[in-house]
């Protein structure tokens, strides 16, 4: 690398550090297998955390299939850049900031034919040049696997809080999810926990649960590999519909087991980290911290309020 390029890279690294220092928790959502529900988890956790009073950013690093904007109903958004340098995120609702390549490519049918190096630069640019401001959470959606995008995120963000690994209960998905566990360990990044998505299908008519991809595979993997289990989210037609329509499923007034499950997971993550000191994530995996673990804690978690 030429000296000038090195300087540019170093300057960008410094800009990333400055930006990321303003964000309390930076979480990479990943999976080994495609289509298991990473984006679903990202957008619904983001909405749930905003409902709890948190400020949340979403960075969509799925360059080839950026679906976050569509699921949030803000695909017509444009990244503002009045001075041509700083990028301003799209804000589909108060407390939520979203950055995705989808906002920069007006034609939704246009394929993004990029090699790894181009993807790495785009992700680093989003981390460095976006005016994220002060946030409680940055949720980073990623494509399946353990490749360029995940590597760039882990190597570029100092003090990444951890990874959330999404899998279905099916053996082939679990097999790939185990690699995401291995990846996180190899990168030295904490595993916040595993979510077993599409864990049974709730029949919209009779409400019985059909084990389309089985049930319990993700939970069993957590026991085997000694990683925290965050919960299981069943398949539900209304969740899929809400995402296709770009509607906030968390605001759906009807009873939904999948929404309750996602809400419970958001609570675990929020109360867990809110009650920990520094970047300790050891509380994660419990519904809320116990009063004893709150001793000396200055957060507003439910246990402390008692
Ligand atoms: N619990 C669920 N119930 C019903 N539909 C779901 C559920 N989870 C995900 N889906 C649907 O399954 C499809 C795949 O989900 P999603 O796009 O979130 O997966 P992904 O892991 O992000 O995929 P990719 O690997 O392509 O990025 C979407 O159409 C989504 O609406
Ligand atoms: Mg996705």
Supply database-style keywords.
38% helix, Rossmann fold, single chain, 9-stranded mixed β-sheet, binds magnesium ion, binds adenosine-5'-triphosphate, disordered C terminus, alpha/beta, 9 strands, 306 residues
What would you say this structure looks like, in words?
The protein is of the alpha/beta class. The chain has a single domain (3-305), classed as Rossmann fold. It contains ten helices and nine strands. Strands 1, 2, 3, 4, 5, 6, 7, 8 and 9 form a nine-stranded mixed sheet that branches. Strand 7 (191-202) and strand 8 (209-210) form a beta hairpin. Helix 1 packs across helix 4, helix 2 crosses helix 9 and helix 4 (116-129) runs parallel beside helix 5. The protein is globular. It starts with a helix and ends with a helix. The model is unreliable at 273-283 and 285-306 (pLDDT under 50). Residues 31, 34-40, 62, 65, 67, 143-144, 197-198, 233, 235-236, 239-240, 243, 258 line the site of adenosine-5'-triphosphate. Residues 38-39, 62, 67, 141 line the site of magnesium ion.
């Amino acid at each position: 690398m030429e000296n000038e390029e090195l300087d540019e890279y170093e300057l960008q690294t410094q800009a990333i550090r400055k930006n990321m220092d303003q964000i309390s928790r930076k979480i990479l959502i990943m999976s080994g297998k495609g289509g298991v529900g990473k984006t679903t988890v990202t957008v619904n956790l983001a909405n749930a955390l905003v409902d709890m009073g948190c400020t949340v950013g979403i960075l969509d690093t799925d360059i080839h299939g950026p679906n976050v904007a569509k699921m949030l109903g803000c695909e017509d958004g444009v990244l503002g850049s009045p001075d041509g340098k700083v990028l301003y995120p799209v804000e589909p609702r108060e407390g939520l900031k979203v950055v995705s390549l989808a906002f920069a490519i007006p034609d939704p049918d246009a394929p993004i034919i990029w090699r790894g190096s181009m993807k790495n630069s785009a992700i680093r640019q989003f981390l460095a040049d976006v005016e994220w401001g002060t946030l409680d959470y940055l949720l980073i959606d990623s494509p399946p696997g353990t490749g360029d995008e995940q590597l760039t995120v882990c190597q570029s963000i100092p003090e990444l809080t951890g990874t959330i690994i999404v899998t279905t209960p099916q053996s082939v998905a679990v097999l790939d999810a185990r690699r995401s566990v291995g990846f996180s360990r190899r990168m030295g990044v904490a595993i916040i926990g595993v979510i077993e998505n599409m864990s049974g299908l709730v029949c919209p008519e009779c409400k019985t649960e059909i084990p389309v991809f089985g049930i319990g595979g993700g939970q069993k993997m957590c026991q085997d590999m000694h990683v925290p289990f965050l919960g299981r989210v069943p398949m539900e037609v209304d969740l899929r519909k809400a995402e296709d329509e770009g509607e906030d499923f968390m605001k759906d007034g009807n009873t939904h087991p999948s929404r309750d499950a996602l809400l419970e997971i958001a609570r675990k993550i929020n109360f867990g980290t809110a009650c920990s000191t520094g970047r300790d994530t050891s509380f994660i995996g419990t519904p809320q911290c116990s009063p004893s673990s709150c001793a000396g804690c200055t957060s507003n978690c439910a246990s402390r309020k008692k």
